[in-house]
Amino acid sequence: MPSRTQHSTQSRFGFPWGQRAVYEVGKSRHQRAIQLRTQTNVLLMTVLVSAIAVGVFIFFNWRGAASDSKAVSCADYPEYCVPFVGGLEEDAQLALAEASGARALDEESHGAEGVVRGFTADMMPFIGDPDAPIHFRAVFDFSCSHCNPYHTVDLHEFVKDYVLSGQATLSVAILNGVGGEYSLTAAQAALCAGEQGAFWEMSDELFRLSRLQGIQNAYSLSTVEQSAKEMGFDAGALTTCILSRRYKTVLNAQQLFATDNGVRGTPTLLVSYGDSGTWTALDYSQRGYSNMAEMTRAAQPVGE
């Protein structure tokens, strides 16, 4: 067995330190082999304990990220607190999305008269006054790195400042080419949340989770389900809806819209005036909040 001697040490600055164990190198090959195995086992155990500690830390941080979710309410999402009008009528199930019976608002509408949320005739989630003089449509992918800040900052502020006032509408088309299955799960989750009156709220939450966890973890079914519970959803119904892929038709229509209108990347912003139904893609330098605001003010009828 290796022998152990103890030495009392003192720092060169005069501070006494506690005794420490010093292991002498074994004299025989057998002793050295035993020492090597012992040291290797200690090293492996240290690495294992460290890995477990890191895993626990990450797990609870992920759980903490989900627990920061806001409840689906007018208090937590005032910019989306407007009446539901639905709009998808292809079948009984799709007709539930953002429909009038999806969720009862817990406060009076925060929008001007005529401002509502639902789906357009060409299957795009929208918010605003359908009779507004200008309409914007954002094409994005939940896994697109540039889409996250664009949605969270520019579009968010635009909704609060110009959509709730009835001056413009905002609709979205969701693609899933960047993150593949992760993007598809997120897109389905947002659309399925619409059945519980929360398409826009879930979209915000998905982008928040991806900023904290990355798309692989944020857009896993377990994370989405946990977040839904925190937000007050029927998480089981949401998961069942995601797995059913029943919004495939809607996502196909949104992809076709993007293709037909020459969208080559995300995020892309398009504009349409009045009831023309004609969409024009804007240059990436024109998609920011300031330009949207300027275009909206210019589109208002004279005297308003």
Strand and helix layout:
Elements: E1 4-7, E2 20-23, H1 29-67, E3 84-86, E4 116-119, E5 125-128, E6 134-141, H2 147-163, E7 168-175, H3 181-193, H4 199-213, H5 215-218, H6 221-231, H7 235-244, H8 248-260, E8 268-273, E9 280-281, H9 289-299
Parallel strand pairs: 3-4, 6-7
Antiparallel strand pairs: 1-2, 4-5, 5-7, 6-8, 8-9
Helix pairs in contact: 2-9, 3-4, 3-7, 6-7
Detailed description of the structure:
With 304 residues, the protein is an alpha+beta fold. The chain folds into two domains: 25-67; 73-299, Glutaredoxin, CATH 3.40.30. It is built from nine helices and nine strands. The strands form two sheets. A seven-stranded mixed sheet has the order 3-4-5-7-6-8-9. It has a two-stranded antiparallel ribbon with strand order 1-2. Strand 4 and strand 5 form a beta hairpin. The longest helix is centred in the N-terminal third of the chain and has 39 residues, at 29-67. The radius of gyration is 28 Å and the shape is elongated. Mean pLDDT is 87; it is low at 1-21.
